[in-house]
């Protein structure tokens, strides 16, 4: 599935280079970009998210049970 919007990623510091090289450039631009204001990595629109699955946030992994809402 291709990203339609900016997609935030959960990239640990030691996997920075691996994540940056996981996807080729899109329309001549880097596929993954560092947002210095939010201090987070994000995938540009048009990026194939399946190549970045390892770094997609999974908030359900932090829920204590299915009745505990995670925002």
Automatic annotation (TrEMBL):
Concerning InterPro entries, the annotation shows: DUF5710
Q: Which domain of life is it from?
A: Bacteria
* Domain DUF5710 as annotated: residue spans: 6-57
> What is the protein name stated in its UniProt record?
DNA primase
Originating organism = Salmonella diarizonae
């Amino acid at each position: 599935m291709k990203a339609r919007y900016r997609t935030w990623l959960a990239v640990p510091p030691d996997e920075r280079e691996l994540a940056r090289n996981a996807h080729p450039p899109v329309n001549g631009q880097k596929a993954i970009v560092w947002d210095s204001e939010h201090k987070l990595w994000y995938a540009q629109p048009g990026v194939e998210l399946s190549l970045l699955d390892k770094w997609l946030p999974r908030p359900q992994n932090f829920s204590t049970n299915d009745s505990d809402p995670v925002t």
